[in-house]
Write a structure and sequence with these properties.
Elements lengths: L3 E8 L17 E2 L2 E2 H12 L6 E7 L4 H11 L6 E5 L4 H9 L4 E8 L7 H9 L5 E6 L5 E4 L5 E4 L6 E2 L3 E4 H13 L8 H9 L4 E4 L10 H17 L1
Parallel strand pairs: 1-4, 1-6, 4-5, 7-12
Antiparallel strand pairs: 2-3, 6-11, 7-10, 7-11, 8-9
Helix pairs in contact: 5-6
Length: 236
């Protein structure tokens, strides 16, 4: 089996519940293409020419024929994508994608973040010596910490970051961390970085994220995504 430097696992197992749609949000149309297609296209373009990479898509198990149809309709045949079955939980889906990864390093990316670019991927890649690297941005609003009893107080927002994907890891480190997580799950682990920190004690490095690298979750996110897409076209 040919080994790669980098495997990019795109996890696309979400639903349309918060989007108010019967169609899972990753399949909703944006600028004439499904969101998941934009994500795959932009990841592919962003990783070309500077790193030997492969692209892995994790889709809901029951959507096999539907997703294959989308890939045939919207992606050039020259783009090779490995396909993995999603699981009940996000952790199951990530592990399914990891089972196909041959890269020494792996990036895990949300299928509904379609605006990832080369600069972000390279910031993550050039920090790979840290073994666990995440992109994050500063919040623009004031932040308050709220306790269960309603007690709350302000937090210095310069000490807080909003975490994005893709998140980059040494592949063996992530696999080992997920193996430990599977044996003794911790519901407090909400993303791949928190699983690595909890089960390997490895510290996570942070690189600057991208304001436009938004996650499409609600209808207002689609409006913002359409604006971002229009701005990208104007900049060209």
């Amino acid at each position: 089996m040919a080994m790669k430097e980098l495997s990019v696992v795109v996890v696309a197992g979400g639903s349309g519940r918060r989007m108010g749609s019967e169609l899972p949000k990753q399949y909703l149309m944006l600028g004439g293409k499904p969101i998941i297609i934009w994500t795959l296209l932009n990841i592919y373009k962003a990783s070309q020419g500077w790193v030997d990479s492969e692209l892995i898509l994790v889709r809901p198990k029951g959507d096999c024929e539907y997703v294959e149809g989308l890939l045939r309709s919207y992606l050039p045949s020259s783009i090779h994508i490995k396909i993995a079955d999603g699981g009940r939980e996000r952790a199951d889906s990530v592990q399914s994608g990891l089972s196909l990864a041959t890269g020494s390093y792996v990036m895990i990316h949300d299928g509904v973040r379609p605006f990832v670019d080369k600069a972000l991927l390279q910031r993550l890649w050039f920090a790979r010596a840290s073994h666990a690297v995440i992109p994050a941005i500063l919040p623009t609003d004031s932040i308050r910490l709220v306790q269960k009893d309603g007690e709350n107080h302000a937090i210095d927002r310069s000490t807080v970051r909003l975490v994005q994907t893709p998140q980059l890891f040494d592949t063996k480190l992530l696999n080992d961390s997920y193996s430990a997580f599977r044996e003794q799950p911790d519901p407090g682990c909400t993303d791949d970085a928190s699983i690595v920190e909890r089960y390997s004690r490895m510290r996570t490095a942070i690189v600057e994220g991208e304001e436009k690298n938004i996650k499409l979750t609600t209808p207002k996110d689609i409006i913002l995504a359409e604006w971002i897409m229009a701005e990208c076209v104007n900049d060209e």
